[in-house]
TrEMBL record, chain A:
PANTHER family: ABC TRANSPORTER, PERMEASE PROTEIN (PTHR47089), GUANOSINE ABC TRANSPORTER PERMEASE PROTEIN NUPP (PTHR47089:SF1). It comes from the Bacteria. The keyword Transmembrane helix applies. Keywords: Cell membrane, Membrane, Transmembrane, Transmembrane helix. This is ABC transporter permease protein YufP.
UniProtKB/TrEMBL annotation, chain B:
GO terms for molecular function: ATP binding; ATP hydrolysis activity. This is ABC transporter ATP-binding protein. It comes from Lysinibacillus alkalisoli. InterPro entries: AAA+_ATPase, ABC_carbohydrate_import_ATPase, ABC_transporter-like_ATP-bd, ABC_transporter-like_CS, P-loop_NTPase. It is found in: Cell membrane. The keyword Endoplasmic reticulum does not apply. Keywords: ATP-binding, Cell membrane, Membrane, Nucleotide-binding, Repeat, Translocase, Transport. SMART domains: AAA.
Amino acid sequence: MSNRVVNILVPIISIILGLIVGAIIMYASGYDPIAGYQALWQGIFGDMYSIGNTLRQITPYILAGLAVAFAFRTGLFNIGVEGQLIVGWFAAVWVGYTFELPAIIHLPLALLAAAVAGGFWAFIAGFLKAKLQVHEVIVTIMLNYTALYAVNGLIKYVSDGGYKTPTIHETASLRSDFLKDLTDFSTFHYGLIVALLMAFVMWFLLEKTTRGYELKAVGFNQHAAEYAGMSVKKNIILAMTISGMFAGLAGAMEGLGTFGKMSMMNAFTGVGFDGIAVALLGANTPLGVLFGASLFGSLKYGALNMPNAAGVPEEIVSIIIAVIVLFVASGYVIRLGLQKLAKKKEAK
Amino acid sequence: MEYVIEMLGIRKEFGGFVANDNITLQLEKGEIHALLGENGAGKSTLMNVLFGLYQPEQGEIRVKGKKVNITNPNIANNLGIGMVHQHFMLVENFTVTENIILGAEPTTMGYIKKKKAAEEIAALSKKYGLDVDPHAKIEDITVGMQQRVEILKTLYRGAEILIFDEPTASLTPQEITELIQIMKRLIAEGKSIILITHKLKEIMEVSDRVTVIRKGKGIGTVVTAETSPPQLAELMVGRQVEFTTVKTEATPGDVILQVQNIVVEDYRKVDKVKGLDLQVRSGEIVGIAGIDGNGQSELIEAITGLRKVKAGSISINGKEITNLKPRKITESSVGHIPQDRHKHGLVLDFSIGHNIVLQTYYQQPNSKNGIMNYKAVSKKANQIIEEFDVRTGDGEHTPARALSGGNQQKAIIGREIDRDPDLLIAALPTRGLDVGAIEFIHSRLIEQRDKGKAVLLISFELDEVMNVSDRIAVIYDGKIVDELDPKQTNEQELGLLMAGHSKKGAQA
């Protein structure tokens, strides 16, 4: 079996196996798996409205996945995408409602603000790692909480004791009447284009530029990078900052697209943490992240239809999503199985 | 004849690449059987098959005449096969006893019987003349002693057959002599030994028979007493090999490297280089002879900018480079073949092509305005792969990790020489390589010299220093203690100087 066939077969088999196990769980708990999966399918592709919302759900997952994947590729573990996303969200919304500018300036400025805020939040972790060898996992976890509560405080401050920010001006919004009409009043917005563009940016940066070459070299082997005359510290800080910028943009998707404002939160959005799974599903490549985010986003959104249409409780739905992701993530086992099978055939 | 181990017609493939092809190795009881082959010839693969780490596609293994199926290292252990690894598998801050019993701890009710184990180990150590203190901590004992701990580890587990993987690679000449005695004692006590090596001198000295493999194929087994080093080298490489390095008289020119009275600390902030002076001129090879740990690493790192110089000055072509950034020093026409090719020399996860431009990726034609030109990189990589005979599975796209040590080294040397630096620093350039590769590397170093470049060679191998250098500087305790003409000295004199005896002291 050629490598290429295996590479395509593995995720497909993984998803099928995940669905089968999910069906068994539904059946064992006394629900109809066929109705359940029909509801899931309808929830994802049922009509233009569902498709629009599914795509909208995928968008922040792409950016969060890129953030984690970029860090992994440069030898860092950015577990703080959640926090960077939150500060990015707030920064985008703040620019969005504070200034009055033409859309052609306002929207890019709001996106930039999100990227800068997320980048700065990650820069703190990168700086501490480079200068004081503090492990980035610890710092980024802590910065997640800092971001959550700091932003809640800011929301309270800017809204004079309220619980949500003012709504952004039209000129900073990613939404459009055209998309709204096209998708039957879903919340689908132009953010998807930003996300796809960023996937390209990540690919270009890592695969085509000298900077990407350096970032990867430092990520793989700091000693060899130093021997070759690269600045290890500078590259660590830069890698972390770029990762944070992707995360900040993920926040902008929520702020400028889906919600148009920001409300105080009791808990994390979860998008940042799911970004870790998305990156791993996508083997840390930009194209892989697009697929990973599509799978994740579709399941997350489509599954919302399962309690209503098939009576499958939300808890079971969460388990099924987890099982599917687990199978895809453990593609290695399936790969091994396929190889053994191929070998047996050869032996015969 | 009774064989304790027979590996018959072993074949092992890795996805189309045949690492072992129909190799047969038969180990007699009580013999030292050398396994000889170039880097990447498949020696380690064969031993990993015997040790249960790989499963062969074809062939069978017999232990004492009985066919066995070794599917994991535990089975190998139970069959009495023990491996003394090249890179020691020891916990630094554990004692000798703790390391030896690790994984096979004798316990009563969950309590480790350390005292009894220590007594057993002391007894074993005495029986085989290993002279190991069971209570010493690993970090406090020498490399040679650590290796004996590895040997004890296999004996403690009841090994009858010991596999030594390149055992002399990191030992001093004295330690090698001692190791050979230990191996002979093991044989006298009824053990059998497989010795993986490519050092012909050791094979001639210690082994009874030699099995040669070349490019994965079993070439055959010869009786050591009936062969000679040139014949073995030819069997291994497949062509005749020059043993003495051919070179003309050196014609030293201007001073290229000038090191004046430098002091360098190691990572613990202890002075390791203590006021060292050194000059290397164009058109000469200066060899630094010394025992590991006398400041060689710190000296090289100071010259190349990887370590701060505390005092003194270094200049290249008359230009001061003390404490400049590594890139500035590289750009001052310094090439560096690093001591540890995995740590400093290569990004193992990069392809070999990407590794070729590790110092030049930001320059034209490899890139322009921050955009990589991978076509140019690929051209350069293929040129070096061809010119330096780097054997890769998949050309420039092969991950550096997948290359054998010798080919990794050839790639690094190709990269450094291709930049044509005025000063080439070669630190242990032939460590762990076979005669064919060594011959090649030596001739390239001499070629650089003949082109009027300065070469600084650091080596722990006296043969290498004496054969290749035009001038030998002996380093001891962070200083150059003497400079000698290789034609007018001998191993004994060098050995004494390296051990800290002054010339006069030696004569007295």
